[in-house]
Amino acid sequence: MINLRINGVDVAVEKGTTLLEAARFMGFPIVTLCHMEGLSPYGACRLCVVEIGRAPKSRLVSSCTYPAEEGLEVRTATSRVVRARKMILELLLASCPQSKVIQDLASAHGLRQQRFRQEHDDCILCGLCVRMCQEQMMAKAIGFRHRGEKRTIGTPFDVKSDQCRLCGGCMYVCPACQLRCTYNEPDKAVCGGCANLAPPCLEKEQFDDMMCYMEPCVACEVKTS
Question: Is the full-model pTM beyond 0.85?
């Protein structure tokens, strides 16, 4: 067993367990976009970042791909982590502003607008569809092509694949293919109409080393007599 500490709680996990798995096992929520149970970790979206180590040598890592280490200090909701997640969501929102999945995540993290030029892409390169096709459907009909800014997902040479069974698994897991949001203007980049907004205490009480991670927020629940 490997012993580590997550948000001040001592945790013992088996070798090979990722920080995401360890944190969720203890009930600490970590938002993800490219991660899905049953598929191999990929670490593309970086939304699952956590802070490991102690200042001034602490650093951010993707929890879905980082294995648990003996004596590791992990914090899942520091101000540094929250800022990084908000920046990533802004960039994702600029790439695919009409994705309901990204819209809901942005709303839940307190974003009301994004500062970058909107691209209106139909893919954020999370790789969910590629892994679903390869690992669950056993087809390998689609894959990544090219590199850098020219990187895309599709079939080789854009020719219809004989391996594709039209199962729809790729569309089922794709965050960019979900129900579209109507807001697509920079000053109205985040709708939030379909999601519960983030607890107000997240903005009012800034804690550098640890911020609110309760879901739902205990302090914000409606109390009945």
Answer: no
